[in-house]
Amino acid sequence: MDATPSPSSSSPFDMVSSALGQYIPRGGAAAAAGRADSQGERTIPRYVPANPAPGRQEQILGAVNLDWDLRITRCNLDAPVFAGVDAVTGSPFVDLLPPGDVPTVTRRLRQVLETGEPHVARVQRLRRSDGSELVVSMSILAAAAPQEGLTVSLIAMARRLHLYAAETAIGTSLDIGETAQSLAESLLAWGDVAAVDLDFAVWTGEAVTDRPQGRVRLRRAALVPDRAWPDGYVTPGDDLPSEASRLLAQAVRRDDAAQAIVIPDRKAIERVLGSPRLVRALVPGDRAAGVACIPLVLDGAPPVVLGVAEVWRRADRPFDDNELFDLQELVARTSHHVDLARQHQREHTQVLALQRRLLPRAGGDTVETASVCQPATPDSAGVGGDWVNSFPLSDGRTALVVGDVVGHGLGAAATMGQLSMEARALLSAGLAPDEVLEHLDETVTLLDDAESGLAAGYSALGSTCCIAVYDPVSQHVALSSAGHLPPVLVPPDGPAGPLAVRPHPGLGAEFALREPFEVHAFATPPGSLLALYTDGLVEDPALSIDEGIGRLADTVSTVHPWDALEEAARRVVAALAPVRRRDDVTLLLARMIGYRKGDTATWRLPARDDAAARARTLVSALLGQWRTRDDTRDSVVQVVSELVANAVRFAGGPITVRLIRAGHGLLCEVGDTGNGRPRLGRNGLLDDGGRGLHVVHSLTTRWGVRWTDTGKVVWAAVAR
Asked: What is the residue-wise DSSP string for 96-109?
């Protein structure tokens, strides 16, 4: 019976070393030439095959043990493919690396030491004593107990394996910058410096034509190794000088198929570039004297060139035909990944542009707003249907809207945009929040009928929305909700908590489940803070939804009146949003300010023939107290007189006149009990009906109608 192995025999180093025999061919003139290290330990015997099989040389293993100072304690690099890689016991492991790779690899080694999590299959170059380099697949593992430190396994990569590994690494991201960076890191196996320059249209996600008009604009998308570059050198995010773009474009955009271009020495490079400024911008140092430029070609009829990859080398290492073939093959294999990233960039840009278009603008004089929108994932598939919006209404009120459309991606974003714009249009037209939700409910139902929504494979049924309208004069908010979570109110002199809003089914519910939308009105004195949000902010698998809303109320209550609202909103989201989000996180904070008491005045007048004269007297006296300019006073008095006269003539009942001093203008409101809508028609010069509205239209910057439970309010704004 076999003896129980010691703990050290199962260490990663020993397991890798024992596996060497599977990859180093045995037989023939094999010689067990053990080599001792400085501590007297012997490594696995070195087998030298008499007739090595070519297929067995494709992948060769080696192992290196490191201590906490990243110095080599043991190594097994005896396979012939590692010849010239001098791993001396006691020397730093980074001595085996090219200088430009030292910071990145050191960071990875330290990370595995601290966390114990392995870093697997990194494509890495090792320096040989003759100046050449060996490409390996490097994995970093924590050493097994009772040993300490790290075990670094190395797989010498033959050409086929390297091409496969490089293509696999490049295709893991849909971010165009990361894709270009992965391509550049893979190309570094053939040179000292690698760069990827893309057509600007590719960088922005636009369509690339096979014969662009005018000069080609190239932008540097990736550059390796990561090091400090001198001033003037083109680094990622910079546009190449126009002369360089023209030269590269002429090199790769030919009448026939695009081909790789090789400039073998520095003298030829300087002759081609023709300018010291271009040499400083493009040539990475004095030692890099030769360059191979390989176009990124998208197959098609005709082929489309997306950009160009450049590999720079020293003069003593010219490119041979096999290397150029490998470079072209790798770039050709990965060009479609670049195009996929371009398409994703275009889609992502479109969706984000839509979301940003719907974000609230700066608050007005009567309310301060701040919002935070964070998608569940950074790609377009994670951009969902959450939206917030706040905008001033023409009559001096402010609308606050938050919604959550079911799903993610372009379908949800398109529905989000349609509902948000419709809500804004209806609120601006003077409809109440419950009436707006009725229209949105009908819209969602129409979007999901058999011919449109369901046929497109997307359903918006069950989407939610909450609409709040703040009146800065009465200092009240009218709120309606369609299946949305209740807003949180923090009054200036009371405890914070969610509003007691009656639950309602989401938009597009079945006819049997539909109920009338209710309007919930509540007071918001100056200093009140209202929080509207989506479920991604408060949902936590470990908590009930009520506990999540309670946490939000507690967090929002810590916002002080003097805190900057933008910073406060980010702080609230940072405190509550889960680290691994499964849904979008959206928050809208609104701090109520209202009008000062002396900036508003309200009068109630009987619907008699002298009502217009009485209104002129009251308004003129108030404007004198406000020290309004004479021309503005005359305009306001005339507007109020015409509106009151129309109310007496066409409506009846008591008339309410309200004057508001707001910002850079004056807002006049005349309310009555009528339900007829005033219309501005094309009346003749001698027609009596409708002349009052023409006068109002000529003296104001805008006017409109707002419906109330008892009638309507006609409002008009006059500049001062």
From this structure: GS-GGGHHHHHHHH
